[in-house]
Amino acid sequence: MIRGKFITLEGGEGVGKTTNLAFIKDYLEQRNIPVVVTREPGGTELAEKIRQLLLDSKSEAISEQAELLMMFAARAQHIKHVIEPALAQGNWVLCDRFTDATYAYQGGGRNMKISAIKWLEDFVQGSLKPDLTLLLDAPIEVGIARVRERGALDRFELEKISFFENVRRAYLLQAELYPARIKLIKANQPLIEVQRAISDVIRTLPGLHPLNCSSSSRHGIIK
Ligand code: Z5A
After folding, report:
1. Backbone angles phi and psi of 92, in degrees to 5
2. Alpha-carbon span 50 to 37, nearest angstrom
3. How does pLDDT run across 155-172, given as a tens digit for each residue?
4. How far is the CA of 130 from the centre of ligand 1 (A)?
5. Where along this sequence does the record place binding of ATP (predicted)?
6. From the CA of 213, how far away is ligand 1's center (Å)?
């Protein structure tokens, strides 16, 4: 069995990760690639419970250390029970956020020690790294305006603007450090242009089958 590829989507609030995950799933399935879509924090029963605790704006104040450890506790479950088995069975895994989010939010946003994050990354992931990361980037006002339109805000969305500026800066630093893996996508443009940029990157991945014509005409999306 050929191992599948691990693709992650990253970026600040409201940049369009969830929207474009659906687009990529469609794009790959049209090329007969089996896809598993998942998210972090979350993706297993236990990890989704940790997610609820992390996002609850009414919970007791969560210490920065606890927040970091909860992210990695959820990730450990997710890797063991979802990501690794899916990849081993030849599925491509599309994940809404992964460890770059920890560098951005806990490292950049909360100013936690990068060396602690790196240690936890090695401990929890071993050699597992995404094959490709799409970093959707837009000025923070754009994403925040999109999220506010949606209604009630979670514990992270209630943070100050300076927090989101630090998160964005840390994401861009990750992209600078790992240019072969992390591809920057301008998210502050019409969705069709964002998806064109995404498909330009995805189509360069080795292992893609030719387009399945019946489904391409059904969906009518960018090839
Ligand atoms: N977190 C962390 O701190 N550390 C970690 O290690 C991890 C996570 C893994 C939960 O994430 C929180 O966990 C997150 C970081 C933290 N903090 N927050 N907040 P999440 O992924 O669930 O939360 P999110 O980033 O807020 O997701 P989101 O609000 O759903 O944003 P999105 O998925 O990027 O956007 P979307 O839902 O696809 O799009 C938002 C709206 O914009 C929607 O109405 C779209 O139709 C619209 N949209 C999308 N693209 C466009 C374009 N191009 N033009 C116009 N409108 C658009």
Report:
1. -90, 130
2. 19
3. 888 888 999 999 999 999
4. 19
5. 11-18
6. 31
